[in-house]
TrEMBL record:
This is Methionyl-tRNA formyltransferase. It catalyses: L-methionyl-tRNA(fMet) + (6R)-10-formyltetrahydrofolate = N-formyl-L-methionyl-tRNA(fMet) + (6S)-5,6,7,8-tetrahydrofolate + H(+). Residues 26-180 form the Formyl transferase N-terminal domain. The keyword Transferase applies. Belongs to the Fmt family. Keywords: Protein biosynthesis, Transferase. Its EC number is 2.1.2.9. NCBIfam families: fmt. It is an enzyme of class 2 (transferase). Signal peptide: none annotated. HAMAP family: Formyl_trans. SUPFAM superfamilies: FMT C-terminal domain-like, Formyltransferase. The keyword Hydrolase does not apply.
Amino acid sequence: MPLSVGFMGSGRFAARCLELISERARPLWVLTNVPREAGRGMKLQNTPVFDAARSLGLPLYTTARLSTDAERVEWLKANAPDAILVIDFGQMIKEPVLSMARLGCINVHPSRVPQYRGSAPLQRAIMDGLSSTAVSIFRLDAGMDTGPLLAQPELEISPSDTLSTLSEKAAKLGCETLLRYICDVPADGWRFTPQSGEGASFAPKIDKSEGKVNWCEESAKKIFDKIRGIGESPGVFCTVRGKRLRIRGSEVAEGAGGEPGRCEIVGGFPVVSCARGALKLTEVQPEGKKTLPAGDWARGARLEKGEKFT
């Protein structure tokens, strides 16, 4: 019989994990952040976990800040399961919540902790050009992703992976591993290993300004990896003819040459020289317009050889 679990989460990764976990171990309840203003219209939007829990028909609760929400903390104390699953919640968990459940708060973090601790591990791993990372299942303590490890399966990063594809792979691997413990391993068989602080690194939240391409300083491979990591959100962009051009798809091009930022048209597609190498743009979104193949944009804009991208 599966252990009883509660679920705390907010983001898209958490929502996908909630769907996968619920297939075998239906949470007793789900706690997520309150709706927050987002988008151009700054309208209140529910978290992805809110929407997922509602579609699954799970008991759903919200909190603005759990650490100061005495009423919700008391409710958790009265409704503590065997383990509280905390995934992509967006808030630090403190005592007394950390030790309310007899097995503690269990986190699924898509990184090889102690490397890439923090809120953007997959984005940073892709941007750094890694070929592999891991998914870490650990028990939360008072630190930032410093708790003892229960499991840490390897996760391959293919050259074609973007944030969305890698996130899906990480969610499936992490939840499959976690469910083995929840459903198949008696609680007295759980073994936690303290994390080593050696080689620790931090993966901070992505700032929108990081999406600006610097053709004069960044290599083609670096820009390509940046587009894979944050091209979907918050986006990678440059400026052409004084207007913002969002780059949604690219390939590292053979050959190079020319002044960084200068463009050639090769096979109908714009190819831009970088600090090292050149980048073929395959999909772009001009300012105020929809996403389209870069070749169609180049023809429509009558892009010429030597035009400057900044």
